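User: Hey, my collaborator sent me this sequence without any context and asked if I could get a structure. I don't really work with proteins. Can you help?
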Amino acid sequence: QVLLVESGGGLVRAGGSLRLSCAASGRTFSRYGMGWFRQAPGKEREFVAAIGWSGGSTYYKDSVKGRFTISRDNAKNTVYLQMNSLKPEDTAVYYCAADQDYSGYYAYPSVYDYWGQGTQVTVSS
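Assistant: No problem. I've predicted the 3D structure and written it out in structure-token form, which is a compact way to encode the shape of the chain:
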């Protein structure tokens, strides 16, 4: 059992920044691959970013490259998503997820074992 709790969402203007946090409980957090996904109303859930258990490998959706940065602090059992230069099209509920088995198929929701409840990000134009 792993509990993930996102925080840091909110309302920002286009061009602004937010940092999302995902706090995890569980003694094996440091060995989990972690991902961020987002879902806008009427849209499918889409991959945003992922990070390997050691933090050495990161992956991003093309449209967020150069703007978003995923990181993790295993000592704090926390993964972050720093979002800069936000655009209205980034508006969505953002979810963090943990992959216990570390399959390597990081962009697919089905490989993740645990999910947070989501945090709303709204970017105004």
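In plain terms: The CA atoms of residues 7 and 21 lie 5 Å apart. You can pass these tokens on to your collaborator as they are.
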